[in-house]
């Protein structure tokens, strides 16, 4: 993983942002926002993610996060990987979605 996802002090809170490839306005549909929220809840319950604030924009996300139990870089890596896979599947199986490529 690149150094921009390294958290040097696991006891601190961090502001993180991540965006959709090509800044596509993906999160205009509620079902895609729900995938993101479900993924966050899973990470809170099972991986020790602590979320102190968040903002879902149409093409990117901002979060203030921390963890007292697991490494933040591991949590963030797993969360992004899982969320991307679920979003991709949801988009491909959405009959009204025009942006399938």
From TrEMBL:
This is Transposase IS200 like. It holds the Pfam family Y1_Tnp. InterPro entries: Transposase_17, Transposase_17_sf. GO terms for molecular function: DNA binding; transposase activity. The lineage of its organism: Bacteria, Pseudomonadati, Bacteroidota, Sphingobacteriia, Sphingobacteriales. Residues 28-93 form the Transposase IS200-like domain. It comes from the Bacteria. It comes from Mucilaginibacter gossypii. GO terms for biological process: DNA transposition.
């Amino acid at each position: 993983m690149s150094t921009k996802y390294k958290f040097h002090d696991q006891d601190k809170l961090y502001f993180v942002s991540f965006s959709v490839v090509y800044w596509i306005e993906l999160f205009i549909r509620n079902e895609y926002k729900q995938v993101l929220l479900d993924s966050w809840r899973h990470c809170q319950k099972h991986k020790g993610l602590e979320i102190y604030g968040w903002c879902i924009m149409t093409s990117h996300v901002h979060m203030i996060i921390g963890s007292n139990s697991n490494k933040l870089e591991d949590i963030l890596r797993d969360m992004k990987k899982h969320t991307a896979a679920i979003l991709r599947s949801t988009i491909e199986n959405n009959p009204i979605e025009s942006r399938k490529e």
